[in-house]
Amino acid sequence: MMSQNRLVWTLVSTVIGVSGANLAAAQSVLELAKDVTSIRIESTGQHYTPRQSTTPDGVSRHTSDYTLTVVWEPDAWRAREEWGIHTVYPVFGDLSFTMTYHESFGLTAGQDSRAPSPATRPMSGARIGANFKNLWLTNPLILAAHAEAIPGSEFKIEDRRYQRMMLFAHDTQWSMILDQSNGLPVEITTIEVDPHKGETEHKVIFSDWREVSGVPFPFQVEQFLDDKLLRRETRNSIDVNPGIAPRLLALSDDLQETDESLREWGWSMSHFFLARAGLGAPQDYPETHTVSLLEVGDDIYQVQGGGSSNNLLIVGPDGLAIVDAPWFPERSEAVLRHLAERWPEKPLRYVILTHHHIDHTGGFGGYVQAGATLVTSQDNASFFTNALERAGQTGAAVIAVGQRATLEGIGRPVEVYEVINSHADGTLVAYVPDARVAFVTDLFSPGRPRRGGVEALWTSELVASMKYHGVEVERYVGGHGAGYGHPDDD
Ligand SMILES: [Zn+2]
To answer: Of 406, 342, 338, which Cα lies nearest the Cα of 367?
Structure first.
């Protein structure tokens, strides 16, 4: 265990800027942290996903347990992560993979997703940016040693004294809080981008400090987005300058540099990429390149090319209606460009959201910005209107659907039904009665192999709800999968 006294003087003097021997002691620990040229951390932990909760802004969903070995060379911007992930939501499974990455390129080997993938493939820039951000964020003394620090205010909570300081490093502002009783960081917060809400706090809370080679390291780390749990980690061992075989971090020169803007994008919303990876369903690209329309009924199209998530487009004589808004505002902009080219005379009247999960609604602000009326359930209306306000978008027209509603604005009726189910509260299904086509997300995914388990339960809940509403759907089209189908099909 470390010498507490030394740390008290070390960090507090760093913050308060006292002079003499204390300042020298402070500098010596930061110098030691600067001398950490490599580090090896073995951990176990759990991933949580805030936007897969049953109810909007509800308790984060526990998505997986993991084992992780990280090797990191901070100054060299090189790292390797060896992951074993046991997913528990939405399906049980085991994934194991390694990511080896340098500043601008990297390689993933093994299975990091439930979808089939080549044995090795280049890492996306987004993931490289997100991973590096997380290494700095979760190793506060190494960050402090590489940062410019500005002391801030002192404050007290129940007789405990704290000190806030700002760190500036890697073009990013990090806000650190120190506990003055032991001089150690309690938390670091940095502002990241959330696809729903815009600027949002990514906070890391540290505890169980132990000294390794003269540098304090937290052995318990918890991460939060907007105060919702993202990840909880226990470090089982930490080695400083362990003598890493050069080949462990070596990468072939053939690997292509990733796009800098993607690395910055990953850095700016690292929480998102971590949560998706922890779900066994990484989403590492903005999906702006491909917008393809599959006609699934008369003038009704499944909008594909959004990675694993689709929208539905309904074309009426007086305008367009979109159902769901996969992933990111950037994806919505790509879809909108496509619509403007193909139907330049038709305005987008509605964006109908099936439920609040981010893989189907992260881009909803883009459609609202384009003038669409937001159609959501009464359960989810305040979540989305608050998100719009936080993102600086005010004055949106909103229709909050109770059990059912009929939308007339595109000159072709579109019906919306609430579906009570165990996947997400306030789920809606959109239905075009003249074609008997319905769009459903997550509860049933035609064109994707059925997974059984909880998905079979969700499908039975869908069938029961539509029967309750007295709607005889001929074709279901999914927010996942491709084409159309029916639960009664084999
Ligand atoms: Zn969902």
So the answer is: 338
Sheet holding 373-377, edge to edge: 292-297, 300-304, 311-316, 319-323, 348-352, 373-377, 398-401
| Whether residues 260 and 357 fall in one domain | no
Phi and psi (nearest 5°) for 7? -70, -40
The closest of 302, 366, 356, 358 to 331, measured between CA atoms, is 366
Q: Are residues 302 and 418 in the same domain?
A: yes
The residue type found at 143 is: L
Tokens of 371: 């003038």
Tell me the CA–centroid distance for residue 333 and ligand 1, in Å.
Answer: 22
- Ligand 1 centroid to Cα of residue 461, in Å, is 14
Same domain, yes or no: 137 and 204: yes
User: Structure tokens of 436?
Assistant: 């008997």
In the chain, what are the helix, strand and coil shares in percent, each to the nearest 5? 25, 40, 35
Other beta carbons less than 10 A from residue 115's beta carbon: 11
Give the span between the Cα atoms of 360 and 352, in whole angstroms: 11
Structure tokens at 82: 């060896």
Evaluate whether residue 4 is within a structural domain: no
Q: 3-class DSSP state for residue 374?
A: strand
Burial (CB count <10 Å: 0-12, 13-18, 19+), residue 206:
buried
* Distance in Å, CA 273 to ligand 1 centroid: 17
d(Cα 124, Cα 298) in Å, to the nearest integer?
A: 38
Residue 57 to residue 15: CA distance in whole angstroms: 36
Question: Is 473 within 8 Å of 486 (Cβ atoms)?
Answer: yes
pLDDT at 226 over 70: yes
Cα 364 to ligand 1 centroid, rounded to whole Å: 15
**What does the pLDDT read at residue 239?**
97
The residue-averaged pLDDT of 364-388 equals 96
CATH of the domain at 58: 2.50.20
Question: What CATH number does the domain containing 436 carry?
Answer: 3.60.15.10
Task: With CA atoms as reference, report the closest residue to 364 among 329, 389, 397.
Answer: 329
DSSP 284-307: -S---S--EEEEEETTEEEEE-ST
Give the pLDDT score at 23: 52
C-alpha 117 to ligand 1 mean position (Å): 23
332-356 as b/e, with b when 16 or more CB fall inside 10 Å? bbbbbebbeeeeeebebbbbbbbbb
Separation between Cα atoms, residue 301 and residue 335, nearest integer Å: 12
Q: Is the pTM of this model over 0.90?
A: yes
Least confident piece of the model among 21-25, 330-334, 484-488: 21-25
